[in-house]
Design a protein that fits this description.
Shape: globular
Low-confidence stretches: none
CATH topology of the largest domain: Aminopeptidase
CATH class of the largest domain: Alpha Beta
Mean pLDDT: 95
Order of helices and strands: EHEHHEHEHEHHEEEHEHE
Number of helices: 9
Radius of gyration: 19 Å
Distance between the termini: 22 Å
Structural class: alpha+beta
Strand content: 25-35%
Number of domains: 2
Number of strands: 10
């Protein structure tokens, strides 16, 4: 069992937070015994989907289910696209962000472009707090040396994605999003395609990604683009005190 003091959430959300990742060898008894190590103002517990005894116990003591969380990886090979998909990805440009692009991304985030995550959907928090959490996260990723890209269509930036080297020849697809003005045009495929494309340029042989099942669009794209292999699935529970 991993117990992580998520000190960044104090900055982002204004609460003390611990995140717990339950692992396959853990038991309900271990979770109970170590409760004093992780229970705080805001506690997040990720439970593998098959461990129903722990999931049921957490709900019985007041934890609330907030999302399913899926991790997966891709073999870093460009997908085979049909003619419509090929025209779509060929109609956009993928470029590294500059400072002006960063400011645009931050403004779009502050405007509430992300509304499907467990913080945005949690009535304990405001949308402004959820937006601030994303800004903090992006700032941390910039410090870690992540690469920020924008997708442009007809001179308009329509979205962004972020990748980072995490191990030798392994890239992490950190996050991606289409700006609200362009979400009705089904351009999400371009983000996933160029995440793979730019990771290959970084000599990656594997791309790791994660998404919330609250975000149906992300789930659909991972399935439709092909090549993604399921790694882990979690039920995510939260508690406020």
């Amino acid at each position: 069992m991993q117990i992580i003091h998520a000190i960044w959430e104090k900055r982002n959300l204004g609460v003390n937070c611990y995140e717990v990742i339950v692992e396959s060898g853990d038991t309900l008894e271990i979770l109970k015994e170590r409760a004093l190590e992780y229970e705080t103002n805001y506690t997040v517990i990720k439970v593998p989907t098959g461990m129903m005894d722990i999931s049921l116990y957490l709900q019985s003591v007041g934890y609330r289910f907030m999302e399913g969380f899926t991790t997966c990886y891709h073999s870093a090979e460009l997908p085979n696209l049909n003619s419509i998909q090929q025209r779509m990805v060929s109609s956009v440009l993928c470029e590294k962000m500059n400072d002006k692009d960063w400011d645009q991304m931050a403004n779009e985030i502050r405007g509430g472009m992300f509304r499907d995550d467990r913080v945005s959907l949690d009535p304990f928090f405001t949308q402004d707090q959820a937006n601030n959490r994303y800004i903090g996260w992006m700032t941390d990723e910039k410090t870690r040396g992540a690469f920020f890209f924008k997708i442009t269509y007809r001179d308009d930036a329509i979205g962004f994605f972020v990748i980072r080297n995490v191990e030798k020849r392994i890239c992490l697809g950190v996050i991606s999003g289409i700006y609200p003005k362009f979400q009705k045009y089904a351009m999400g495929l371009c983000l996933y395609y160029y995440t793979i494309y730019e990771s290959i340029k970084l000599n990656a042989k594997r791309i790791e990604q994660a998404f919330s099942t609250n975000n149906r669009g992300a789930s659909a794209l991972h399935l439709s683009i092909g090549g993604y292999i399921l790694k882990e699935q979690y039920n995510v529970f939260i508690s406020h005190k």
